[in-house]
């Protein structure tokens, strides 16, 4: 395994910037105020192929590596945009590519690759069971030709703006399995028709930042046999395959956020003059920015290592979890420093720091809360007793 520190994927980053330059701060500010979804931005990114770089060429994608996908997400964030509006299309690949069958890949991946279909929903979390995923209550009952699913998914991103959902449901009751991680299955759900006939009732939830969050009521939803992903009852294992990729992709987004904050804070510290000199001449202003930069660079190294391990097929749980932990803390630190550097303007929507500050806070809670990362490291890396 080799980590190439020279490789920055500049050609890909330039492609990202070509699009992000058309979606400036004012665009995101307005969406944030209206709490609306950036359909044009997501569609343009999808059509450009940048959102399907992880899809192999035989299905119409670019067949690129996770490191390249991470560079794309980082660049989106660093340019003031919000990759949280479209990142699911990348991380669901861990499940669909590895465990979907040829028919499913032909039917769906080819259309996701061209931007014809959006695959933006990963339905795992539930209201009552939250982090305790294996106790989820959504149940898929076997019926002739498929499954009848009932349940309720909660805090699901982009629910109203996707054509497809990867849904995790129980197919064997919890009290009938040997291990609680067994008896969960993944289904591909075509959302449009199910919404129209009331099998999916999707309602928005307003959040601190513009995230198009929803809850999804599932009422006698019929999913045909051919949309079961992989083997019945093995779904929990399959989502873990998406989750390490997801952690690294979102860690990349955090690095992008940190870059955004550090670049903006540095510019402001160099331009804002008080007491007849730039505020950046004060150590009280420049040291926190320098410290945030060091934290970002350290986190970036762990992200790079995690990606290199993922690509060489090594177990990556430790690095993927640490990457997200450190990168989400680094972006939050950088955001906090940017607010301080901008003074009152740090809270002024017209300067975009406060918007990004709200957006980046999420990544210490979702997709996985910081505590669960620490619990993983304590138990599985350090050998401490399981704490829950
Ligand atoms: C904006 C947003 C987007 C989201 N998008 C999606 C999505 O697309 N798909 C999806 O499936 N989910 C999504 N989620 C859900 C997200 O993954 C969960 O909110 C998150 O995993 C935490 O679950 P919870 O909110 O139920 O908190 P809870 O499970 O109720 O936990 C509350 C707190 O207690 C802590 N805690 C719980 N148990 C322990 C323990 N044993 N040890 C230490 N601390 C513990 C948690 O870490 C957390 O800090 C999203 C959430 C948000 C806010």
Summarize the structure.
With 388 residues, the chain is of the alpha+beta class. It contains 13 helices and ten strands. Strand 6 and strand 7 (213-224) form a beta hairpin.
Overview of the molecule:
With 388 residues, the chain is α+β, with helices and mostly antiparallel strands. The chain folds into 3 domains: 10-114, Acyl-CoA dehydrogenase/oxidase, N-terminal domain (Butyryl-Coa Dehydrogenase, subunit A, domain 1, Orthogonal Bundle), CATH 1.10.540.10; 119-232, Butyryl-CoA Dehydrogenase, subunit A, domain 2, CATH 2.40.110.10; 237-381, Up-down Bundle (Butyryl-CoA Dehydrogenase, subunit A, domain 3), CATH 1.20.140.10. Helix content is 48%, strand content 15%. The protein is built from 13 helices and 10 strands. The protein has helices at residues 10-20, 25-34, 39-48, 66-78, 88-91, 93-99, 102-114, 191-196, 235-271, 283-311, 317-342, 353-361, 370-381, and strands at residues 119-123, 139-143, 146-157, 164-170, 184-190, 200-205, 213-224, 228-229, 273-274, 277-278. The strands form 3 sheets. It has a 4-stranded mixed β-sheet with strand order 1-4-5-8. Strands 2-3-7-6 form a 4-stranded antiparallel β-sheet. The longest helix is centred in the middle third of the chain and has 37 residues, at 235-271. The chain starts with 9 loop residues before the first helix and ends in a 7-residue tail after the last helix. The relative contact order is 0.12. The model has no long low-confidence stretch (mean pLDDT 96). The protein binds flavin-adenine dinucleotide. Flavin-adenine dinucleotide is lined by residues 122-125, 130-131, 155-157, 207, 211, 213, 362, 365-369, 371-372, 375, 387-388.
